[in-house]
Amino acid sequence: MLDIEKLDGERVSPSLDINPLKLFDIAKSQGRPLYAAAPMVRYSKLAFRQTVAEYGADLAWTPMILAKEFNRSIFARDSDFTTSIKVPPTIVQFGCNSPIELSRATTLLAPYVNGVDINCGCPQSWACAETLGAALMHKRELVAEMVKEAKSALKRDGFEGKKTVSVKIRIHKDLRDTVDFINTVQAAGVDFLTIHGRLRSTPSSQPVNLKAIEILTSHTTVPTLSNGDVFTVADAKLHAEVTGVGGVMSARGILQNPALFAGFDSCPWEAVEMFMNKVTRAPIPFKLVVHHVSEMVGSDRAGGQTGGGAGPLLSKDQRMEMMTCQSMLELMDFLDGIREVRRL
């Protein structure tokens, strides 16, 4: 069941009228890349997507949703997707290895999102064991068939030209294989691509391969996003300049600092308050709330690749005290106390 608020009796969000491809054009006209918030397991839920939109994210991804389970289980539909009239342009990402399952899932969610994305980048072993995520990087023809089926579903349901089908990928050790993959899905009609510049086996502690993204972008004929190691707006602009992409996507950086795309080099206190306000209206499990806030107030990363930043909002002792909170009320009281101290 979709948690969709009603406005004047209509289940419609104004942002749903926006084709994501138009957002690339708007960003280009403003002399910058498109800013995107990545799909993150458990963490890119509605309240977080709403928060990053308040701070300049143009486009936000849902966490990966398993298409087969979503199609068959009301419990999956209850827990995996939530939307509202106050939602940023949103891409739903599916974990899927079946064209027919993707077609069905696209039909279910197309009215409530701006586009559908196929996850070909998740490196987790469980996903690859199920032929999902990065395992699909070796099944380009299957991915192409899924692109075609999703596009057909959009056309059948009256969304042709209004919603997009995209693919998020990683790179192969031999970039010629990645070029073949890109050419295949482009021929199938994919609307845009996101390239994470790491191999499936590359840990996030190693720098993203911008040179590889640059080479691959020279072979794309559709708008392209660069993903990996974007912690500040300066990082985003550097990625765009080096690789030639039309947009950049942040995961770890925006999790730690939802105000990243508004130009803040580290998370401002107001972003913590913004998120808490959003999450009271679009609840998620309490443990996830605590994790979100701990990322925002506790990151020691300052300034990304380009330097700067102000360090963590809370001390180590304060963060340890926060972790002892057992409920939303306790957490809100704790944060209110910190806010009062900060005002002194």
From TrEMBL:
Q: PROSITE patterns of this UniProt entry?
A: UPF0034
What Gene3D superfamilies does its record include? Answer: Aldolase class I
Q: What class of enzyme is it?
A: oxidoreductase
TM stretches of this protein: none
Q: Does the keyword Hydrolase apply?
A: no
Question: What Gene Ontology terms for biological process does this UniProt record contain?
Answer: mRNA processing
Molecular functions per Gene Ontology: flavin adenine dinucleotide binding; tRNA-dihydrouridine20a synthase activity; tRNA-dihydrouridine20b synthase activity
- Per the record's keyword annotation, is ATP-binding included, yes or no? no
Q: Matching Pfam families, A to Z?
A: Dus (PF01207)
- DUS-like FMN-binding domain residues: 37-297
In the record, the note on similarity to other proteins reads: Belongs to the Dus family. Dus4 subfamily.
Known role: Catalyzes the synthesis of dihydrouridine, a modified base found in the D-loop of most tRNAs. Specifically modifies U47 in cytoplasmic tRNAs. Catalyzes the synthesis of dihydrouridine in some mRNAs, thereby affecting their translation.
Name of the protein:
tRNA-dihydrouridine(20a/20b) synthase [NAD(P)+]
Organism, scientific name: Hyphodiscus hymeniophilus
